[in-house]
Design a protein that fits this description.
Layout: E1 5-9, H1 13-25, E2 31-36, E3 40-42, H2 47-52, E4 61-63, E5 73-76, E6 79-83, E7 88-91, E8 94-97, E9 100-103, E10 108-109, H3 117-120, H4 127-138, E11 143-149, H5 159-174, E12 180-185, H6 197-209, E13 213-215, E14 220-224, E15 227-230, E16 235-237, E17 240-244, E18 247-248, E19 279-281, H7 300-318, E20 330-338, E21 341-348, E22 356-363, H8 364-381
Parallel strand pairs: 1-2, 1-9, 2-5, 9-19, 11-12, 11-17, 12-13
Antiparallel strand pairs: 3-4, 6-7, 7-8, 10-18, 14-15, 15-16, 20-21, 21-22
Helix pairs in contact: 1-7
Length: 382
């Protein structure tokens, strides 16, 4: 068989995992290319530790160029257009063709979708945002902390609840928790509702045990310095506003023929194949409906598993073998609870009629598990 090229669009978890898995399975005569607009990979799962000061940016970032040591080509540039039928993409004016394409472009944060949000608050969902929030927390004298999700759909279901509990622990350590109230306002009807009632009950109990108030079905309408207004007419004062921003699909996929009316890529939920042969999509850029009516959560654990399945199937196809790998909908999540502890949820999100997720109580062992995962990523993938 002639030499093949695999083009991976996106250098986040899905793209980096796919590249590593393909490079392990494909002979070196076949090319593996990764494209990303950022020169560095940053582990988003550790941004909350940046927020608390437990990590420095240098500890959770690596140059994507390090992939070259493994025989993976890295192209630094903006994906401007994707042409699936031709299996090519335009990157900063340069056309790149391939035999197989993996779309791992993720989702874009759009805080500007809520009037005043970006100027009124801080987010831990980006590296720069987490650094700025760390500084705000370091000098916070006490008052009202409001943590909120700015839209029903967002990245990482556990993140806002982890943030509230880690802020609680940090302010206790600083001695200002006694004159601080912390509350979570969520656009969801229950915390981590997509994971089922057991997970929702467990997370809500974790919040309540720390004196953190929870307000469900509270959709923000606008924000300004010191206050937040919700769509039901309620307003709350906020001495410190911490938010999870809305998300949107990447603009580069508009007009590609891969996306639905909302701009997200629909795929076969087991193989991650798109409607175009030899073109796949993994991670946050996809929309996979579940039997319960909600989409599969956008979380790194799913991008990871999907990328592994796609890599195995591409490698099998290149070798002239049957593509048998499947993404089974299984996912697991560490839920940081502060004080060196973490809970853990895991289960089958493809189960019907709703996901079946088991929750484990917070423990230092689960926190250690997340630390070990971080080390695996930073030293094993890049």
């Amino acid at each position: 068989m002639r030499d093949q090229t695999v083009l991976i669009l996106g250098g986040g978890i899905g793209g980096v995992v796919a590249a590593n898995a393909l490079r392990r399975r494909l002979p070196r005569r076949h090319r593996v290319l990764v494209v990303d607009r950022e020169p560095k990979f940053a582990l988003a799962a550790s941004f909350l530790w940046i927020m608390t000061g437990a990590r420095r940016p240098a500890q959770i970032t690596r140059p994507l160029a390090r992939l070259a040591r493994k025989g993976i080509e890295v192209i630094h540039g903006e994906v401007e257009r994707v042409e699936p039928a031709a299996r090519r993409a335009v990157v900063s004016g340069r056309t790149i063709e391939a035999d197989h394409v993996v779309v791992a472009l993720g989702a874009e944060f759009t805080p500007e979708a809520v009037p005043g949000l970006a100027d009124a608050g801080h987010t831990f969902c980006t590296l720069d945002g987490a650094v700025a929030l760390r500084e705000a927390l370091a000098g916070f004298p006490g008052g009202r902390v409001v943590v909120l999700t700015a839209a029903p759909a967002y990245k990482c279901p556990a993140a806002p609840y982890e943030a509230a509990m880690l802020i609680d622990a940090l302010l206790r350590k600083r001695g200002v928790r006694g004159n601080t109230t912390i509350e979570v306002h969520s656009a969801e009807p229950a915390p981590m509702g997509v994971a089922g009632p057991e997970a929702s009950t467990a997370v809500r109990s974790m919040l309540e045990a720390k004196g953190i108030a929870y307000h469900p079905e509270h959709q923000i309408a606008r924000a300004e310095r010191g206050s937040v207004a919700f769509t039901d007419g309620a307003t709350v004062n906020a001495d410190l506003l911490v938010y999870v921003p809305p998300i949107a699909p990447p603009a580069a996929l508009r007009g590609s023929g891969l996306v639905d009316e909302g701009g997200w890529v629909r795929v076969d939920r087991h193989t991650m194949e798109t409607s175009v042969p030899n073109v796949y999509a993994v991670g946050d850029v996809t929309l996979i409906p579940l039997a319960m009516g909600k989409p599969l959560p956008r979380a790194g654990v799913f991008a990871h598993a999907q990328a592994e399945a796609v890599a195995r199937n591409i490698a099998a196809t290149v070798a002239g073998k049957a593509a048998t790998a499947r993404f089974d909908g299984y996912g697991a999540c560490f839920i940081e609870s502060g004080g060196g502890g973490a809970g853990f949820g895991s289960g089958n999100f493809y189960a019907e009629p709703r996901p079946v997720v088991r929750m484990r109580r917070p423990s230092p062992l689960w926190h250690l598990g997340k630390v070990l995962f971080e080390k695996q990523v930073m030293w094993g993938w890049l």
